Amino acid sequence: MYSTAFLDLPPMQAVSGEVHLPGSKSISNRVLLLAALSRGTTTVHDLLASDDTRVMLDALRQIGCVVDETGGSTVCITGLGGRAPLSPAKLFMGNAGTAMRPLTAALALLGGEFELSGVPRMHERPIGDLVDALRQLGCQIDYLGNDGYPPLRIAHAQGVPALALSAPIRVRGDVSSQFLTALLMALPLAAATQAVVIEVVGELISKPYIAITLQLLARFGIVVEHQNWQRFTIPAGSKYQSPGSIHVEADASSASYFIALGAIASSATGEKGIKIQGIGLDSIQGDIRFVEAARAMGAVVTGGANWLQIERGAWPLQAIDLDCNHIPDAAMTLAVMALYANGTTTLRNIASWRVKETDRIAAMATELRKLGATVEEGADFIRITPPAASTSTAGPPQGASAPSEDSEPRAAGSVGAPSGWKPASIHTYDDHRVAMCFSLAAFNPAGLPVRIEDPKCVAKTFPDYFEALFSVTQTATDHIPVICIDGPTASGKGTVAAAVAQRLGYRFLDSGAMYRITALAALRAGLAIDEGHEARIAAMAQNLPVRFEGGKVLLGGDDVTDAIRTEEAGMNASRVSALPSVRTALVQLQHSFRRLPGLVADGRDMGTVIFPDAPLKVYLTASAACRAERRHKQLISKGFSASIEDLRADLEARDARDSTRSVAPLKPAQDALVLDNSTLTIDEAVNQVLAWWQERQPFAVSAPG
Ligand SMILES: O=C(O)C1=C[C@@H](OP(=O)(O)O)[C@@H](O)[C@H](O)C1
Ligand SMILES: C=C(OP(=O)(O)O)C(=O)O
Question: Which residue, 10, 20, 265, 376, could crosslink 15 as a Cys pair with Cβ 3.0–4.6 Å?
Answer without folding.
Answer: 265
